[in-house]
Design a protein that fits this description.
Low-confidence stretches: 4-41
Largest sheet: 8 strands, mixed
Strand content: 5-15%
CATH class of the largest domain: Alpha Beta
Distance between the termini: 80 Å
Number of helices: 19
Number of domains: 3
Order of helices and strands: HHEHHHEEHEHEHEHEHEHHHHHHHHH
CATH topology of the largest domain: Rossmann fold
Strand order of the largest sheet: 1-2-4-3-5-6-7-8
CATH superfamily of the largest domain: Alpha/Beta hydrolase fold, catalytic domain
Mean pLDDT: 89
Shape: globular
Length: 437
Amino acid sequence: MWRLLVFLTAVVVVSSVALAQNDPRARSRLNYFNYGWGPGNVRPLVTHGNNPRVRVQMAPRLEWSYAVSSAALATTPREVQLHDSTQTFYHLWIPQRYRHANPHPLILHISNKQFPDEWGTWIDICTKHGVIFAAATGGGELAHPSLRMRLALDVFDDVRRRMAVDTDRVYVTGLGEGARTACELAFAYPEFVGGVLAIGGGSSPRHEPWMRDRMKERLSVAYMTGVADPARREIEVLRFPVLRDLGVRSRVWTVPMLPGTMPNSLLVEQAFLWLEEARAARRAQLVTAPAMRMAEGVVPFPEFWARAVLEEAQGRMKHPEFRESGLLQLEGLSQRWPGGESARQAQKLLARHDERAKVKWVEIYNQHQLRFAVAEAKAFENFLAGPLNLRDMARKPALIQEAIGLWELVQKYGAEKPEAREAEKRIEALRNLLKAG
């Protein structure tokens, strides 16, 4: 009898997968079963409290190469490219009141140490508020950025598979270089997190305008830096002003703390509670823009994800105040998921817009890119103009080259505009500065 039951189960599964290849509705129904636990699935037994050495079960469903910068991707060592996710270990803490039936908040911490010890700062916060805590080992300050990202995504998806994690209350935190990775992860996958707490470091927003829109509508970004922290000027002069100008919900705490260390838990709790304040607005996105908020434990099929973004973009374009963001989504999904039916439909909708509208979608795209490039280039120059710490002095030539690259983007998107003429002057000045050493 049991053999018959196994055979019939296998037939049902194979038939369902075959159906999903031809029926988009079937693909959406199977999404939970193929890409996550999803509602109603049996989850593993829980060991409450400290689990200091948990092993990742399988490779994550989120692409690490999409989340890292192009510079980091170009220099990724071969051993990092061949990284085996099942060899990743992490510290997992589960609150006593955790139950699989009730999604809980998660702190995904990215340390600047090979063996993280920041748990001491988080223990009281996680105990008081019933928060799951997870931190990978092996991704310290000296690790390649791509490795830190791979380890973070290994842990993130493993926890989402094992536990009931509330998408709106996932907070990616990091210290130092881990803070940069935390920002890059959240900016790349805002649909899966609610906010970021970056301590002593930060990163630039993504260059795709539709992803910046998503960051603005979805994320809360908290920066924390010490009075004598070498990264203080970077956060206050470069990182925070760009987010503020983009309209991202963001805030900076400048607190007493030693460089490279965690602030005390009372200060960290203030930032945590500030992140929590916007959770109701994030949850409401499940109704207004379902593709902007991923269901608990789920990572969609690429085409299913693209189709959801396509439907969201079509809804936005019906309202004049959201039309531009809808056009940018169409352009973005056609680049992110090229070759699929949704990408083809997006290209058709963009062409149809150009037939009817006075302003072409490319012009709208260029306007958004120009505004962002100008804001980031000016913030970068303000940062370079002030006193630099020893680390930044050592890499000053690279920083100047980055500033030149930003002004070149201004020239690209602002051809024949005043901004382009300003960019030409700034590039010449920066190149002279580079020659002077």
